[in-house]
Specification:
This protein is about 30% helix and about 20% strand. The chain is an alpha/beta fold and about 240 residues long. It has one domain (about 1-230): Spore Coat Polysaccharide Biosynthesis Protein SpsA, Chain A (Alpha-Beta Complex), CATH 3.90.550.10. Strand 1 (about 1-10), helix 1 and strand 2 (about 30-35) form a beta-alpha-beta unit. It is globular and about 40 Å long.
Length: about 240
């Protein structure tokens, strides 16, 4: 069984849809846990969720590093998956999770492999026609990222983070894995749809600056925030 951990803060509507897609499109044995930093109490009552960990009740918004440290402490299998709540998995045969497990099994030198979002904002994407299923990259974010449990624990996960900025969690774990000579990468063809929405899905009072999003990226985001332009099974452009 593979543990899947989704962390969320104030984006109830995104988290609900993300969870729905995981449950409907994942046939491989898994256990789904919501790590809630606040504002998503629906998960405690949801029939879709196997475990609900309310981080926020003890700590306020404890932050993404704390959430992923909780995830690696709870993971019970050889691999575990971490993801943000604003992503939708594809509907593939075999399913996305079995394929990603296979990628890890056949690449013992890898510590982490993430899905490819339907569009990279501010970065260069990977051609889905690339002959390689996994492309080595210096960073792979929490886009249904599958990780080797023992390797992540051996580098102490996300411990001892004093101050974190935007994209800091992936820089932290990927650099630690690479320092121990483990590779990190991104799938070329297994893609997730990245929901953006108004204000990145947060309440209006939670500004982009508070989220540590760059407001200058808004125009680029709006170009690709159109789910109808993508195949609903593969999330490749129609």
């Amino acid at each position: 069984m593979i543990d899947i951990f989704i962390t969320t803060y104030l984006r109830d509507h995104f988290a609900k849809k993300c969870v729905q897609y995981v449950k409907e499109r994942t046939q491989t044995s898994h256990r789904l846990t919501i790590l809630d930093n606040g504002g998503n109490e629906w998960a405690a009552e949801s029939s879709y969720v196997d475990r609900y960990i309310p981080l926020w009740k003890a700590y306020g918004n404890a932050g993404i590093h704390h959430a992923w440290n909780v995830a690696v402490s709870l993971a019970e299998g050889k691999y575990f998956v971490t993801s943000d709540p604003d992503l939708l998995v594809p509907d593939l045969k075999p399913d996305w999770l079995s394929q990603m497990v296979s990628y890890m099994e056949t690449r013992p030198d890898y510590g982490a492999i993430s899905m490819h979002p339907h569009i990279f904002i501010g970065a260069v994407g990977i051609d889905p026609k690339d002959p390689e299923n996994v492309i080595e990259r210096n960073m792979c974010g929490a886009v249904f990222r599958i990780m080797d449990t023992d390797k992540v624990r051996s580098v102490r996960g996300w411990d001892l983070i004093i101050e974190a900025g935007r994209n800091h969690e992936e820089r932290t774990i990927c650099s630690r894995l690479q320092a121990s000579e483990y590779k990190t990468g991104i799938c070329s063809r297994i893609r997730a749809y990245h929901m953006f929405g108004d204000n990145w899905g947060y309440p209006e009072e939670f500004t982009p600056e508070m989220q540590k999003h760059n407001p200058a990226l808004r125009e680029e985001v709006e170009r690709f925030d159109n789910i109808e332009a993508y195949n609903p099974l593969t999330w490749l452009p129609k």
